[in-house]
Amino acid sequence: MSDSSEPPTADGDDAADESHVVTAFLRYRGEILLLRRSDAVGTYRGQWGGVSGFAEDDPDAQVRAEIREETGLEDDDVSLVRSGRPVRFRDELADGGEREWVVHPYLFDVTVDEPAIERSEEHDALEWVPPTEIVAPGFAAATADRDAFETVPELWTAYERVAPTVRSIAADDEHGAAHLSIRALEVLRDRAGLLVAEREDFGPDPEGEREEIAELARRLLEARPSMAVLRNRVNRVMAEAAATDADAEPDSEGAPAALEAALTGIDRALAADEEAAATAAESIDGTVLTLSRSGTVREALRNGEPSRVFVAESRPAREGVAVAEELAADDTPECPVTVHTDAAAAHVLASEDVDRVVVGADTIRPDGAVVNKTGTRAVAITAAREDIPVTVVAATDKVSTREEVNLESGDRSAVYDGEAAVDVLNPTFDVTPADYVTEFATERGALAPDELEPVVEELRDVEDWGDQ
């Protein structure tokens, strides 16, 4: 906790012993930033924590000030994910007294690539690590040879207040399927890490640990049933955990096997999404049209060589507008960005010299049909009429093993909130037949729709983990 502003105290006033602080966990590629407190601070020297500081007035404003001061990251470099309920605890002070700490936890995503952290004098070391290193050290390859972190009190409790959950994944209507699949694997990782840590107090219980993690995995699978990538990645982690479990030494059965599989799964998923974007980037030049919000598509556009980008606004949430703003902020004046209404997409394809349509995918059916944000089907059909190739950017984990896909619908009030006796349709996704897809840009290279069968068979092989 930053000591740049010690809280006021008053003799005989119990409330004065209550110190409000903020703690921000900065997340990047599934890991969080931990900072070791230096001799320049007054409390918890040599211990590791998040970005912290005393909250004199408004914690929401103070936490951003602490991020700027302690990391050098500006407000635009981070995005607030959520804040959590305060964590209260009492701790002894060096002078023999006690203080009640009230910790306000926050989780931020770092939105810049390969962030360069500029430490303040309040810290003398930093590490990017999986959060489970707080309670179950030694499982991340990069830190396996390092001693366990000695953290400030209740750091794991603070993290749990803002960590991803089944509920937060089910309620998220802002992020794409690939993003949410990583969050799902983080949920599995965090639970497995906690179970590993609890062995110190309660001893190993491999069978009970397996059952608890399996139940959590099933709840994750039910949270977003239309997202094949979430299902496939959870299934693969559980299948690999079961396979490792079968050959593991007694001390490595149960939670340790699941933790290893989850950590590996997160790394593999992130790499697959990046490689799919790299495949797409190879074919991106000239004028491109896209829609909706796909982190993989944005990465492909950033690494490709488009001369102009058209972005449909993607109602009702209008996430396409945010995409257009992000692309325009990438400081590439030689590539103008134009946002337009969804209804104008067909006109743009017919009247502008568009070289390629590039879209993401929520799910790819076994026959090559693409489930994506509503409007994709109309764009793809129009592109075929205008002889414009359509590239779908997606890791192969987005291929579904099921013919039928549950299409989610959005809030009715986003379309109409009046009092007239009218019905409302707000489909969030539509289905684009494989005939209108030119190629899938994947981590395995560019695949035609009729080349997906081997992928489907591989994914079916990991679905029966519960029977192993």
From TrEMBL:
Gene Ontology molecular function: any one: translation initiation factor activity
GO biological process, one term: L-methionine salvage from methylthioadenosine
Domain of life: Archaea
Keyword Protein biosynthesis: yes
Swiss-Prot/TrEMBL keywords: Initiation factor, Protein biosynthesis
Domain Nudix hydrolase: 17-153
Family under the similarity heading: Belongs to the eIF-2B alpha/beta/delta subunits family.
Name this polypeptide is given: Translation initiation factor 2B subunit (eIF-2B alpha/beta/delta family)
Lineage of the organism: Archaea, Methanobacteriati, Methanobacteriota, Stenosarchaea group, Halobacteria
